[in-house]
User: Fold these one by one.
Assistant:
Number 1:
Amino acid sequence: MKPPGRLPRSSLGSLILIATVIGCSAAAFAYTAGWLSPGRLTPDRMIAALTPPSGPPLGHRRNHAKGICFAGTFEANGNGVELSRAKVFAQGRYPVLGRFNLGTADPSAVDATVRVRGIGLQISAADGEEWRMALINPPVFAVATPDAFHDLLVAAGKKDPEAMKAFSHANPEFAAFAAWAKAAPWTASYAEEPYNSLNSFVFTNAKGDEHAVRWSLVPTAAPVPVAQADLEKLGPDFLEQDITARVQSAPQRWTMVTIVADPGDPTADPSRPWPENRRKVQVGTLVVERIEAERDGPCRDINFDPTVLPQGVRVSDDPFPAARSSVYRRSYDLRAAEARDYPRTEAAEP
Amino acid sequence: MTSAPHRFAPIQRLLHWLMAVCILVMLFVGVGMVSTVAPKYLPLIEIHKTLGLALLFLVLIRLALRLRFGAPPLPADLPPAVKLGARLSHLLLYGFMMIMPLLGLGMLWAAAYPVVLYGGIQVTALLPQSDGVHTLLWNAHVYLGLALFALVLLHLAAALFHALIRRDGVFATISPLPQRERMKPAE
Ligand code: HEM
Ligand code: HEM
Ligand code: HEM
C-alpha cells in the first residue's frame, strides 16, 4: 500500500490539517464547558454569590442552610385528580419526608434574624415515584429571573449601600418582596407559616388537559404576629424548639391549595402574583408527625430539587426550576463531599 | 477465526460511528449542562441520562460482536510499540464506554435521586444513599469524562494520521463507506 520511503509532499499540509481538527475540537469543548466564557452564569458562580464572606458552610446546604427534618403524611382528598394524574392526588395517604428551614447560608443563624422561612418536601407514591418541592413563606419571589437573583446576591453582599439602591432601580419587581419583608408580621413558629411554590408548573390530567398552576401549603394553626424584637428574646433556635414541642403534643397540618392560572397569567415570572380571584382547589393535607434533628436525620441527604416531578406534573415556562435544579445539584455535590465537616454525631464534632 | 478479517464487519463499523457520534454528544452535553442554569439544563440532563444508558447497552452488543468477528490486523510495518499503543488505547476506549454510564448511574443512586429517563422510564436504584460513594463516583465521572475526551482526541489524531499521512489502509478497516478498491469482499 504505502511505498516505503515515500513521504508524500502533502505530509506537512496533512499535519497542519490534523492539528487544526484537534485544536478546533478542543476549543469547541472548552467553549461548551464555559471555560472561555467567564461571563456565563454557571451554578458555580451562583454558589459563589451565595457564599458569605466568612466562607462556605462546609457540609451544609449552600442556601437555606439551617433546618430540621420531619416525617409525615400527605392525605390526598382526591380533588387533585381533576387537575393532574399525579398518583399522589388519588385519594389516599402518602409518606412524606421534609425539612423546615431558614433562607440563609449560615447554618447557625439566629432564628429571629432570618426573614424567609421554607419547607422542603418529598411525597412518595406507592410505586416509589417521587415528587419533591421546596417552598417559601413570601407571597412573591424577590426577582423575575435567575440572572436577577444572582445580581441581587451580589448587590446584597456589597458593603456599599448604593449597590442595593442601584439593584432595586434596575429590578423594580423587587419592591413587592421588599415591602413584604419590611411589613409582613413575623410569627414564632414554623407551624404558623404558609409555604408557597411561587414557581409555576403545568398539571396534566388523565384526559391530557393542561393547566398552569402554583400551589401553597396553608397552615391550620392560626398565625400569631410577634414583633421581631420579641423573637430575639426567644433564643437563637426557638423555631426548632417550638416545632419539636408542637409536633410532640399533636401532629401539625397544612392544607395544600392549588391555584389555577387563567390564560395570560404570568407563569414565567414568580415575582408577579396572580389575581386573588383565581380558581383554588384544595387537594389534600400535609400532616407533620415526627421531628428529627438534621445532623443524622432523613432529610439531610435529600436534595429537594423542584424538578423531581411525578407523571402529571411538569415544568412550565418559568425559568427558575431549571436554574434551581442545576444549582441545588452542585450544592449537593459540595456538601456531600464535605460530609466530614458536619459529623453525624454531635460528640464527634471537634 | 481461521483467516483474519480484512475490514471490521459492517455492523461493527456502523456501531463504531453511531457510538462515536453519541459519545461526542455525551461529552459536550455533559460539560455544557453542568455549566448552565438556563432552562435547557433540564432537557440536556434528560438526554445525558437516557443516551448514556442506551450507550451502555450498545457497548455490550459491540463487545459481543468484537469477540465474534474479531478485528483486522494492523499493518505489518507498524512498529511494535505503536501497535501496542493502538491496542491499549482501544482497550481503554472500551473500558471508558463501559464505566462512564455505570459511574453516572451509581452517582445518582448514591445521592438518592430518582433516575427518570426520557419518556418517564424509572430506573430502580441498586445502591443506597451514601455521601462517600457519591463523592467517589462523582469525581470519577467528572475526571474520567475529561480523560475520555482527551483519549478521543488522540484516537482521532491517530486515525487521521493513518488516513492522511501513512495511508496504510487502517482507516479503511473502519470507514463507514463501502470500499471502492480491489478485491471487494462480500458485504
Ligand atoms: C435561582 C434562584 C435560586 C437559587 C440559586 C437557590 C439556591 C438554593 C440552594 C443552593 C439551596 C440548597 C440546596 C441543597 O443543597 O439541597 C436552596 C434551598 C432551598 N431553596 Fe432555593 N434557590 C433559588 C430559588 C428558590 C425559590 C424560587 C424558592 C421557593 C419558592 C426556593 C426555596 C428553597 C428552599 C425551601 C430550600 C431548602 C430546601 C431544603 O430544605 O433542602 N429557592 N436554594
Ligand atoms: C468518540 C469516539 C470514538 C470511540 C469511543 C472510538 C472507539 C474505537 C474503538 C474501541 C476502536 C477499536 C475497535 C476494535 O479493535 O474493536 C476503534 C477503532 C477505530 N476508530 Fe474509533 N472511536 C471513536 C471515534 C473515532 C473517530 C472520530 C475516528 C476517525 C476520524 C475513528 C477512527 C477509528 C479507526 C480508523 C479505527 C480502526 C483501528 C484499527 O483498525 O484497529 N474513531 N475506535
Ligand atoms: C458514555 C457515557 C457518559 C459520558 C461520556 C458522560 C460524560 C459526562 C461529562 C463529561 C460530564 C461533565 C462533568 C463535569 O465537567 O463536571 C458529566 C456529568 C454528569 N453525568 Fe455523565 N456521562 C455519561 C453517562 C452518564 C449516565 C448514564 C448518567 C446517568 C444516568 C450520567 C449522569 C451525569 C450527571 C448527573 C452529571 C452531572 C454531575 C454533577 O456535576 O453533579 N452520565 N457526564
Number 2:
Amino acid sequence: MKFTYYPGCTLRTKAKQLDIYGRKSLEALGVDFEEVKEWQCCGAVYPISRDEVATKLSAVRTLNSAKVEGEGKLLTLCSACHHVLKRVNGDMKNDENIRFKANNYLALEEEYAGETDVIHYLELLRDYVGFDNIKRAVKNPINKKVGAYYGCLLLRPSKELAFDSPENPTIIEDFIKAIGGTPVIYGMRNECCGAYVSATNKEIAVKKSVKVTDDAMGHGAELLVTACPLCMYNLTENGNKKVPVYYFTELLAEALGVKE
Amino acid sequence: MDKLEQVKLVKERSGTDARKCMKCGKCSGRCPAYNEMDVKPHQFVSYIEKGDIDKLLNSKSLYTCLSCFACVERCPRGVAPANVIEAVRQEVIRVQGENKIQAEKVPEMIDETIPQQLLVSMFRKLNK
Ligand code: SF4
Ligand code: SF4
C-alpha cells in the first residue's frame, strides 16, 4: 500500500523536524509513501460556516490529488492539517450543497465525493504498522517519563475526527510505550493551549499553556510530545519554559536509530 | 440589515439547532476561555434562539473563543455553541471595513518562532 504524504506549509518552514523525522521514520519502518505533487496550504482552520465553499477548495484539491495520484490514502502529520482535511472530506461526502459547489468550481475530470481516506501519522502507526512492530524495531528506547499532549484538533469533534476517545485517549500513550518511554497521564493533556488567539491576546495563551506545562510536570513528565506546530509554539513560548517539548516524530526517529 | 433576517442567516450558517438546547450549561462549564468571555457559550445558544443578536455582535467572546470544540464535544443535545460563535463572528467581519486584522499587519508579526499555521489561522478567523 502506498500513502500520499501531505506536509503542509508549516512543516517546510518552522516545523521542519516534524517533517524530516517523520519521513526518516517511515523509511525505517518500510512504509511506502510519496508526497502530493502540487500541494497547497490546507487553510489551517476548518471553515465552520455552512455557506463557506471557497475556503475549502484548497483542501479539496489535496484530497482529490490523493485519489488521482495515489491510492486514496492521504497521510497527514500536523494536527491542524489533519483536522481541516478530515472535516472537509466529510463535507464532500455528506453535504450535497458543498459537494456540488466545490465540484462546480474545480471542474475536475471526475467528480470528487470524499473517496480519499485521511489518515494521521499516529493512526498509521497504530492501524497499519502496529505498535508491536514498532516496539520490535526500536534500537534506542527513550527511557523517559513522557507526557502526551493531545490538544484539541486531533480529538474534537470526535464524531467527525473519529481519532480516539475525546476524554480518555490512549493512542499517544501507546506510542510512547512502543518507543520505550513511560507515559505520564495528566488532566490537561486534551485542554487547549490557547491556539491562534495567542497572536492577538497573548495573555490567554500564557494562562492556558502554563496550566498545561505545570500540570504535566506536576505529574512527573520530563518532556512532552505533540503533533501540532501551534501547540509546540504555545507550549514552548507561552508555557512555564521548564519542560521541553518535542514533535512525536523526533522521538520516534531517535528510538528507531535514524536521527542524526 | 433587518434583525430577523440577520438572526436567520446566523442560525443557518451555524448549521446547529439552538432549539435543542436544554440549558444545562455543560458547554460553558467545559470552556477553557470561560473567564475571558462576557457572553458565555451557552448564552450564545440561548440569545440566538431568542433572536437577541445585538449582544452577540458586540461581544468580546468572538475574539476569545479558541475554537477548541470542547463545548461541541460536551453538549448532550448535539448543539454546537462554537458554531454559533463562528457564525456571529462571520456576520461581523464580512461587513466591509470590519476586518479585525489587516494584511499589512501580518509581516510585522513574523519572527524566528511564530509558525505559519498561527498566522494563517489568525488571518482566516479575523479577516474576510
Ligand atoms: S470552542 Fe470556544 S466556546 Fe467552545 S469550549 Fe472552546 S473556547 Fe469555549
Ligand atoms: S451543553 Fe448543549 S444543551 Fe447544555 S447549555 Fe450548552 S448548548 Fe445547551
Number 3:
Amino acid sequence: MTEPILSRNFNVPNAWKLSVAGPRGAYETARKVLLAMKPEEIVQTVTASNLRGLGGAGFPTGKKWQFLPKDNPKPVYLVVNADEGEPGTFKDRYILERDPHQLIEGIVLSAFAIRSHKAYIYIRGEYVEPYQNLKAALDEAYAENFLGKNIFGSGWDLDLVVHRGAGAYICGEETALLNSLEGGKGFPRLKPPFPAIVGLFGCPTIINNVETLACVPHILKNGAEWFANLGSPGNGGTHLFSVSGHVKKPGVYELPMGTPLRQMIYTHAGGIRNDRALKAVIPGGISAKILTAGEIDVKMDYDGLKAAGTMLGSAGVMVMDETTCMVKMLLVAAKFFAHESCGQCSPCREGTGWAYKVVQRIYSGEGDLRDLDTLLKVARNMEGRTICVFADAAAWPIQSYITKFRKEFENYILNHKKAGAVHG
Amino acid sequence: MANITIDGKPYAVKDGITIIEAIDEAKIELPRYCYHPALSIAGNCRICQVEVEKMPRTVIACNTRVAEGMVIHTQSQKAKESQAVVLEFLLANHPLDCPVCDQSGECKLQDYYMQVGLYDPKFDDVKVKKTKKAFAIGPTIMLDQERCILCTRCVRFADEVTKTHDFGVFNRGDHSELDIYPGKTLDNKYSGNVADICPVGALTDRDFRFKMRVWYLGSQASVCPGCSRGCNISIEYEKSRPYHLKEERIMRLKPRENPEVNKWWICDEGRYGYKPVDFGRLKTLKTNLNGNTAPFDWKAALEEIAVILKSAHPHRWALAASPEYTNEELYLQKKIFLDELKWNHVGFKAPGQEGYEDSFLMKADKNPNSAGAAQILGLEAGREVLTPIVEKAKRGELEGLFIFAHDLAKIYGAETLALVRKNVKTIIFEGPNQNATSDAADIVLPSASYAEKDGTFTNFEGRVQRIRKAVEPLGGSRPAWEILLELAGVLGMDLSYARPEFIFSDLAKENEAFGGLTFKQIGPAGRVWNKK
Ligand SMILES: Cc1cc2nc3c(=O)[nH]c(=O)nc-3n(C[C@H](O)[C@H](O)[C@H](O)COP(=O)(O)O)c2cc1C
Ligand code: SF4
Ligand code: SF4
Ligand code: SF4
Ligand code: FES
C-alpha cells in the first residue's frame, strides 16, 4: 500500500486539534501558496493533477473551476458538500471528524484559487461529532488567522461558515444544497444555468466535495504530476473507499485510484466474513449498479467502473455474501429512494413510490412474475427524464438487481406466494 | 434568428427562445402542465418531452433553448413515448374521479391521455391517500390534493403574479401535498385565476361547483363590464338546456388572453360579477303615466315617449346617460338627445362611486365605457357629472328626466330620489336591472345586458374593444341600440342601422378620436384610438 495521504492523520489521536495537526504540517502549504502563487496557477496545477470530483460524479475539478465567468462583478462562493448521504459512504466523516484542518486548508487554497471570499460547508445534520470537531477546528483557524482577514499577511480575506443540514438525502445534490443553504426547500434546480454561472444567492458558485478539497493541499505541496501518477490514467490521486458489508475488516481505505476490486475486498478488507462465498458487490454507494461475484475483476476508478456498466459514485463499496437475499436488498434500496425523492418531477415522485410498493408486495409474498417486468418498465421510464439524476440512481438498483438475479427473484415470488394471495 | 426544423417544417425563430415558445409560435400542440407563459419555468412535470436530433435523450421543450440548425420532433415515436410514460406516472396515483370532478371535459389529464397516452395502465397497487379532498381553502376555491399533479403553477402564480405567497408544496416524494400555508386562507383579489391555471381538477371554482358539465357550455368572446380596464373574457353560458337551473343562464366568466390588457387574468370582482345578467332584471315594459298601467307594447310606449319628448322644452328636460352603455348606444343618444332634441342638460358620470384600484388590473372607475361616454357626449364642461342635473331636478327646475341605468338613490340617497320624484313630472327609465329609480319611474324600458348585445366599449386608455352577444335578451328586454333606433324613428329622424357594426362606422367617421375605425380593424386585442 502506498503512503497514506488523505488519511495520514486519521489514526493520530486528537489530530483535529491544531496543537496536533499544526506540527504535522497543517497550513504549511497554504501559507506558502498564498504568498507565492497566483490563483490562475493554482487552477492550472489542479487541472493538470487530474483531480476528479470525489462526491460522486467524477467531474474534473480544475475544469469545473474554469467554468466561472471571467470579469464577473458578483461575489463568487465556494460551497463544500459535506452532506455525505449516499448509503454505504462514510469517508467524508473521517476527514471532518479526524482531520478537519486538512479540509479547511483545502478550502483556503481553493477559495483563493477561484477568488472567493466566502465559503460555506454544508454538513450532514446527523454528523454530530464531525460537526463539533469541525467547528472547533474552524474556531482555531480563525484564532490563528488562517481564516478571516488578510490571511498569512497575503492581503486576502476568507470567511467560512458551517451550515448543518436537516436530514434530507437530496440536499447532497448540489443545487438542492444551494436552495437549502439559502433557506428554501431542498429542491434540485433546473440546469442550465449551472451553479458556476448562477449559484448561491444568484452568484457564481463552485461546489466541491469534502474529499476533493482535502486533496488540494497535497497537490499543491507535491505537484500535479506526483498526484496524477498516484492514480490511473485520467483518474488522479488516491481515494477513500468506504468498504462495508460482509467483509472481515470493514472501514475506510485510502487506495490509489484504479485498485482492483478483488484486491480491495480480499487483501485490504480481509476477505468475506466466515470465508463464505461472495455474492455481489455494490461498488459506489446504493445508486451504483450491482456487480456479481463474477464481475469483480475491475479497476476501481471512474473509467474502469464505467466500462463495467456501473460507476465509482461515492466509492461506497458494499459487499454481500451468499446469504444475502436480493429481494430484501432491493426492498431496502427502493424504500430509500421512495423516501428520499424530493417529489418535484413526476417520473421520480411517482416512480419511486410505485416501485417500492411493488417490491414490498413481492417481499411480503403477494408478488407475481409479471411484477418484475413492471419494475423494469417503471425503472426504464424514470431514467433520463428528470431534473436531477436521483431518478436514474433510483432506477439502476432495480434494473441491475433484477436483471442480474432474475432467477432468484422469480423463485422468491413462486416460493413465497401466500396461499390465497389475491394479487396477480 | 435561428433556423430550426419542427416536425419536418422549417422555421426562423428568435434566438434564445425555448423550444416550447417556438412550438407555440408554430401553433403545434405539445402537452404541458407546469409551463405557463406568464410564470417562471419549473420544468417539473416533465411531459413536454421532444426529440432533438443528435441529443441522446428526449428533452423538455420548456427549458431547452433553440439553437441554429436544431431539428425537433414532437410527434416521433421517441417523443411520443416519452410523453406517454410521463403521463402514466402522473396518473399512477391519480384518483380518476372524473365522474364527480368539475374539471372533467376541460382537464389536461383527460386531453393528453387521448392525445399521447392511450397506454395499457400497469399501476396495480393502492393509491396514495392525501389529506385534503373537497376542502375550501378560501371563499372562491376548493382544493383536492389527490387530483393535484404538483405542477406548482398555482404556487408560482401566488409568488410571482399576486405576490401573496399563498401556496406551498409540503412533504416530499409521492406524499407531496399542495396546500396553502398553515393558518392562511386564499383570499386575494385575483384568487379565481388559480382555478383557470390549474390544469387539472385540483383547484376548482366554488362558484361553478357542480353547476354544470362543461360540455353543456357555450362560450362567447366579450369584455368585462366590471371596471374601466376592460379585461377580455369569455362568457360561458348554458347552451343546450335553457332555464335548466332556474333562470341562470350565465354559468361563469373566464379570462381571455389579451397581452395588451389583462394578459391571462381577471379579478374576482369581474369574474363573479355576472349575476345581474340573470337576476334582478327588468323584463317588461311598464308605465304609470296618467294612471294607465295596462300592458302595452313597444310601439305604443315609444310613440307615447315621442309625443312627450317632442313637446318637451329642451332646457326643461335632462339626460342621464350611462358609461355602462356601448359606444354605439351613446352615439345614438347623442344623435337623438343632443343633435335632434337639442337638450343641454346632459351628464353620465355618477360622482363618488370610485372603488378599489391597484397597479395590476383593477381600476377605481367601475364603469366599462367612461372614456367612450366622455368622448361621445361629454367633452364640454358640465356634460359629465350628473350632479347639476339632479340639483336642478330637486329644485323643481326640470319637467322631465330620461335616465339610463343609474340609480339616483344609490348615488345620492333615497331622500334625493324622493325629492326628485316629487319635483319632476316625468321620469323615463331605460336599463337592464331593476332599482329604486326604475321603481320610481313613470315609464320603464327594459333593455338588454352587456351579455345580450353587440357593440364596443372604450377602456381607460382609449382601447376600443368588442363585446358580443352570448345569450338572448331576457324576457321582454331589447338591446338599447335597437330601442334608441326605434325611438329615433318615431321621432321622425332619419336613422337606421341593421347592426351595431354600422353604427360604429358612422361614429368612427364622425368622431375623430375613433378615427375611421371599423369592427374589422378593432381585431382581437382591441385598438387604441387616436386621441391627441
Ligand atoms: C441525489 C444526489 C445526492 C448527492 N449527494 C452528495 C453528497 O452527499 N455529497 C457529495 O459530495 N456529493 C453528492 N452529490 C453530488 C453533488 O451533486 C456534486 O456533484 C458534488 O458535490 C460535486 O463535488 P465534486 O465535484 O467535488 O465531486 C449528490 C448527487 C446527487 C444527484
Ligand atoms: S429526479 Fe427526483 S429527486 Fe431529482 S429533482 Fe426530480 S423528483 Fe427531485
Ligand atoms: S393545485 Fe393545480 S396548479 Fe396547483 S400544483 Fe396542483 S395541479 Fe398544479
Ligand atoms: S380588473 Fe376590471 S375589467 Fe378586469 S376583470 Fe376586474 S373588474 Fe373586470
Ligand atoms: S411543461 Fe415542460 S416540464 Fe412541465
